[in-house]
């Protein structure tokens, strides 16, 4: 693991990671929760209303001879309430209830709408009936309770009548036998040996008849009471279904589950960096500095020293100085002289340009001689920051012209007007710079800049476009990756880190910028459509200049004397007034610039 890395990726727990994903994609979770609530409201409006009404029935034992309890019954009394609850929902009771309700609905269908509950430790039955209207629910509950009590009473009366009939039959049989015994005893003498036996039979029959007569009298005097309604069904005022609150809560919960699932899917599919914390968590790269979104940086911003952005880059400068390894046994002041820091973008765009320019300005504010070398060829005219506009220098000559041998390094090095101790080597105007960044001329150029300046900041091309950043990093003392939020992908950052680490140069970490906004509108930008044409004309003019001769190497130095003064007034030979005059104006006319509202240096 890289020792210079500030942060390392720590495995997050599943709960923290899940909450983090939901927080990062809160809008998606919120949308799906609202969709779930809306769906629940729609379902509630389409759902059929259901009313319920309940009737409480006290179940009483019928007579002293009835024992309806079984071994597995719910209570210890004379009544098995489980059996009674099943009786309420029987077809027989449902048929009687349909007759009382004067309903044409089949009894089995009515029985399906009944629910019977037995409160604990009581002999009550709570009979609840469900219907589409409040009146039907009230009538159905009362009808089933009434039908149950009638059925139970009729069953009890029939049972008592059966018992009475059985007792009468037994009594009649015993009376008939007693009559025969009495007839026999009437004709026998007192001394007849059979007389004691007959008298014993007569006594037994008489006793049995008396016992049965007592039981018969008890049954005849028994009052049959199946039970009574203690609380009759009332008319319900509100339906029990649909339950609006329950449906809305269920819809919100389902939407939340789908939202978290969608957030997880989006998190897996979306590879763009959304926050600085994504780097150590997903690509195992430390964050050196992160510009907050409230700063709102633009493509051509150079932050003021004491603004929010300037303070961030001042801290970044200190981090870089503390992270660059010094040679063992060397003087610290000597070790910090001629340090080369490469700033490479992980993706296309102007992130590396903004970071390199502001880091170079922060180095220059220490009073040390600093050189900004622009080796980043433009990816497009829309997303590219112009260093010459940012720092107030000429676009040409630049690095590509030096490497091509058209200009010397001294003539291509320009002083930044508003930044003391800062020199700039722009990209240059050579049309084709392919292979120049991997040549020996580049090594010689960086070696010369090491001798002339304390710090050299190189703006490298994006690692996603070419291997030039890797070649530049091999010649540097440290490397930094510039990351633009909501544009750079995790795979691009991982690839950039892999490329820079392969050359052995310490990778200090990443500098994270919010998504860069377009440059502010100014007076000179009103003529923006003419800029590409002027650059093309100057490129054509430079390419037609013959290669420099050794004895005339000092002549191009007159071009960089004063950026605001046209070189036409300083040359001894006046060229023809047609094309050279136009080319000279396009290069040397640099309007004055003024600080922007958020503290960044801007052109007016």
Automatic annotation (TrEMBL):
The chain crosses the membrane at residues 26-46. InterPro entries: Bact_polysacc_biosynth/exp, LPS_length_determ_N, P-loop_NTPase. It is a multi-pass membrane protein. It is found in: Cell membrane. Residues 544-604 are annotated as: Disordered. Gene3D superfamilies: P-loop containing nucleotide triphosphate hydrolases. The keyword Transmembrane applies. It holds the Pfam family Wzz. The keyword Cell membrane applies. Keywords: Cell membrane, Membrane, Transmembrane, Transmembrane helix. Residues 17-103 form the Polysaccharide chain length determinant N-terminal domain. Belongs to the CpsC/CapA family. This is Polysaccharide chain length determinant N-terminal domain-containing protein. It comes from Dactylosporangium matsuzakiense.
């Amino acid at each position: 693991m890289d020792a210079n890395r500030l942060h390392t990726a720590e495995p997050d727990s599943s709960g923290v990671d899940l909450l983090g994903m939901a927080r990062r994609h809160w809008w998606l979770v919120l949308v799906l929760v609202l969709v779930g609530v809306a769906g629940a409201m729609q379902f509630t409006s389409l759902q059929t209303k259901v009313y319920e009404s309940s009737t409480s029935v006290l179940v009483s034992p019928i007579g002293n001879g009835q024992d309806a309890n079984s071994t597995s019954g719910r209570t210890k009394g004379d009544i098995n309430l489980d059996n009674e609850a099943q009786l309420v929902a029987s077809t027989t009771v449902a048929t009687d209830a349909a007759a009382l309700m004067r309903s044409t609905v089949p009894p089995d269908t009515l029985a399906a709408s009944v629910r019977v509950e037995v409160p604990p430790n009581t002999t009550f039955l709570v009979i609840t009936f469900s219907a589409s209207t409040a009146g039907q629910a009230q009538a159905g509950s009362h009808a089933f309770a009434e039908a149950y009590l009638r059925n139970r009473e009729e069953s009890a009366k029939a049972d008592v009548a059966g018992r009475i009939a059985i007792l009468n039959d037994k009594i009649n049989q015993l009376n008939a036998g007693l009559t025969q015994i009495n007839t026999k005893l009437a004709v026998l003498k007192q001394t007849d040996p059979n007389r004691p036996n007959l008298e014993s039979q007569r006594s037994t029959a008489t006793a049995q008849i008396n016992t049965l007569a007592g039981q018969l009298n008890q049954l005849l005097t028994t009052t049959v009471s199946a039970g009574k309604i203690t609380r009759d069904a009332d008319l319900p005022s509100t339906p029990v279904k649909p339950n609006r609150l329950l449906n809305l809560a269920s819809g919100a919960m389902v939407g939340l589950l789908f939202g978290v699932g969608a957030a997880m899917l989006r998190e897996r599919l979306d590879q763009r960096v959304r926050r600085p914390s994504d780097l150590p968590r997903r690509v195992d790269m430390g964050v050196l500095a992160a510009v907050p979104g409230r700063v709102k940086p633009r493509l051509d911003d150079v932050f003021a020293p004491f603004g929010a952005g300037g303070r961030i880059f001042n801290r970044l400068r200190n981090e870089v100085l503390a992270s660059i390894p010094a040679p063992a046994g060397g003087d610290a002041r000597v070790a910090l002289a001629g340090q080369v820091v490469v700033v490479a973008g992980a993706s296309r765009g102007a992130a590396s340009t903004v970071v390199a320019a502001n880091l170079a300005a922060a180095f220059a504010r220490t009073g040390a001689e600093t050189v900004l070398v622009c080796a980043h060829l433009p990816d497009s005219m829309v997303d590219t920051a112009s260093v010459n506009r940012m720092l107030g220098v000429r676009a040409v000559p630049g690095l590509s012209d030096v490497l091509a041998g058209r200009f010397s390094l001294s003539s291509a090095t320009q002083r930044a007007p508003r930044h003391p101790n800062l020199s700039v080597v722009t990209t240059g105007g050579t049309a084709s710079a392919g292979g120049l960044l991997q040549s020996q001329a580049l090594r010689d150029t960086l070696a010369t800049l090491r001798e002339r300046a304390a710090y050299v900041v190189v703006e490298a091309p994006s690692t996603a476009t070419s291997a030039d950043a890797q070649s530049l990093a091999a010649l540097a003392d440290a490397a930094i990756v510039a990351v633009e939020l909501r544009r750079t992908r995790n795979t691009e950052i991982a690839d950039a880190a892999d490329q820079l680490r392969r050359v052995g140069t310490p990778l200090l970490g990443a500098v994270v910028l919010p998504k860069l906004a377009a440059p502010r509108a100014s007076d000179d930008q009103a003529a923006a459509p003419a800029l590409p044409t002027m650059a093309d004309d100057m490129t054509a003019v430079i390419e037609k200049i013959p290669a420099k001769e050794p004895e005339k190497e000092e002549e191009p130095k007159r071009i960089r004397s004063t950026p605001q003064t046209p070189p036409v007034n300083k040359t001894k030979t006046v060229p023809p007034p047609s094309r050279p005059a136009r080319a000279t104006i396009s290069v040397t006319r640099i309007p004055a610039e003024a600080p922007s509202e958020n503290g960044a240096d801007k052109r007016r």
